[in-house]
Amino acid sequence: MIVRPTKFPASESKNLIAFFFLLPALAALTLFSFCPMAYIFLLGMQRYNPVQGGTFIGFQNYLNLFRDTNFWWTLLNSIIYIAVTPVLIILSLCVAMIIREKIKGRKIFRTIYFLPVVTPIVITGIAWRWLLNEDVGLLNFLIVKSGISAHSVHWLTQYPVNLISVMGVTIWRGIGYYMVIFLAGLMGIPKELEEASIIDGASWFQRTLHITVPLLKPSITLVFIISSISAIKVFTEIYIILPGAPIQNKTLVAYMYQTAFEHFDLGYASALGVVLFLFTLVFSYMNMKLLERGSAP
Amino acid sequence: MEKSIIRFLKLWLVQVAAILIIITGCGKNSQHKTEIEFWTLQLTPEFTNYFNDLIKRYEKSHPFVSIKWVDIPYDGAVQKLMASIAAHNAPDVINLSSDFLTKFYNINSLMKLNSLLSPEEVNSYLPNAFSYGVFKKDTVALPWYLNPYALIYNKAMFKQAGFTDKDVPTTFDEMSTFARVFKNRTGKFAFFLNIGKDSFLPMILESEGVHMLSPDGKRAAFNTPEAVAIVDKWVSLFREGYLPRESITSSQTSIIEPYMSGMVASVFTGPVFLTRVQSNSPGIYNVTGVAPALTGKTGKSELAVMSIAIMASTKHPRESLDFALYVTNAQNQLAFSKIVLTFPSVREALKDSLFTIDDKSPIGHARYIGAKDVLTGIRLRTYFTHPDFDKLKDSFDEAIQSACLGKMGTEQALNKAAQEWDKVLSGNSQ
């Protein structure tokens, strides 16, 4: 009887090679993402100072969160901020559909729409702060001069107008980025389907509603998830445009930053981070489930 | 195949050996030198030449010491230093502002200098400036350059409104009245003062003789009718449109921008910003006047002090202190004041003609009056020495912002802030 050496089946050895190549990335992710994330859970249960170390206080930081009005206000603002997502989807999809058409100068338009994405947020943020200046800003000048309003709008000081102002900047910056994703999605839609619908007498609106949007569902799902997570995590725009606003006008990440890097209460900031993480996780999961259900036949 | 592997291994061994020789060789050279790492706060590129020259001269006279100079951005300074302390690679000598000193003193990161300084060395500094580096009885920093406050005003705008140099307000109270008259006459803002973010109101209250803290430092003391009356003047000015909207959100570092743009006729800030006006808005600089700091009833004004501290973790305390004394000595401070509109903290340097002769230019006049103010300026906002001073500051600022935006009355805002302060001062804040 001949005993053959055991060999991995072809598919298993392929898997092993794949795992081998994935290992460095996994190691880097574990070291730089998963381990710090796990550590945040531990820090959240401590009164922690980077120099003097920490003392274990159990769930005290989490209990304090429930009594902290700043936490509730900033959480509410983060939830309000998610409203940029549907606006971004609609606007960037519209822009992508217009730019897809063979109109004159579409390359220039594509560049113009993408320009805010590649311009550093610090620069655009400062420029917006000037535009929104309540005493000498261009926006108020136009509003008052054109007679839209007799008084200037308090873009940067009056809550929730100041939050909405920053949301506007996020939308302005995001359109170009999500437009590119939608353009890629639109390229994948077979021309024949649209041509057939035209022959059948479908209007532009009907084509968009019954062909383009359903076939763009994967792109819409992607944009929905990415933009909503970005909205929950928004920080730079708030930091640049509303530097002196009360914390209750800002978002949860801004509060986390203030707690961690201005007050150096890293334990409490970690507890905030854990809540933010759980919130984002649950929100994204619900989004995916909702969108999956919507696409089921 | 085997040959090529052997050739590769040989080459590899030669390279490793060469690297080891270089490393050990370098080690031998550096064994004799003590390296002092020195951090400054946002002083490049304007003063790169000054520091290179300063360090070169020091290293020449101290052949066994080398200085590694690192300049860090002001905004991220605390975070960066905190991270370096946690990672056990903090610098030896560091430039800190007075509020940063508080933070690092309260976590025991600064070396105590009491027994290391001779009485002559202590006495060479201005006592009011030196006191900024003393916490309880611990001396943890040497004063470096100083910034008093001044009123910087636009003479042309004043003239347009029918005012002359003689009408320039000298007290906060006069300014609150002046701001109304000026805007009613011209439609322009007379004055920019931070009253919300980085609020100057605590400074005004202290200068008016109303203390922010109780004598034992355990309670807030600013929720009194007298304090309400003073704060309410400024809140009303804002609500009625006599102060720019930015005055409740602007940070202290951007305070000069409305003045440079010609949006306001005067600003209460450090004369150090005049050089920025000179380079960015020469037209406005040419019509700029400088008056002494506005004060309250007590006549007291505050001083901003930049200090040099030595980290407790330093392995070279003697060399670090020697270098800190060198950076802050009269000769080097005077040389620094000649290139920037700051004031030295040593008596000797203030005797120079740079500070005793008024050449009538905005910068020259600011130097002349500032040199007198630095002798008397004190820390008015004593709560800045509390470990949680930023929580105190934030809660006060936000209460004033709420009052300015009409969410609550001034009295209610001060009561709310006082409650927050009492929590923080008793250690019961979250």
Keywords:
heterodimer, A: 297 residues, mainly alpha, MetI-like fold, two-stranded antiparallel sheet, 14 helices, 2 strands, 72% helix, B: 430 residues, alpha+beta, three-stranded antiparallel beta sheet, 10 strands, globular
Q: Can you tell me about this structure?
A:
The complex is a heterodimer of chains A (297) and B (430). Chain A has a domain at 83-245: MetI-like fold, CATH 1.10.3720. In chain A, 72% of the residues lie in helices and 3% in strands. Chain A contains 14 helices and 2 strands. Chain A has helices spanning 10-43, 60-67, 69-81, 84-100, 106-118, 121-131, 138-145, 161-187, 191-199, 204-215, 217-232, 236-241, 252-262, 266-295, and strands at residues 46-49, 53-56. In chain A, strand 1 (46-49) and strand 2 (53-56) form a beta hairpin. The longest helix of chain A is centred in the N-terminal third of the chain and has 34 residues, at 10-43. Chain B is of the alpha+beta class. Chain B is built from 20 helices and 10 strands. Chain B has a 5-stranded mixed beta sheet with strand order 2-1-3-10-6. Chain B has a 3-stranded antiparallel beta sheet with strand order 8-7-9. In chain B, helix 8 (172-186) packs parallel to helix 10 and helix 19 (389-404) packs antiparallel against helix 20 (410-425). Chain B is globular, with a radius of gyration of 25 Å. The N and C termini of chain B lie far apart (69 Å). The chains are: A mainly alpha (297), B alpha+beta (430). Chains A and B meet through helix 13 of A and helix 3 and helix 19 of B.
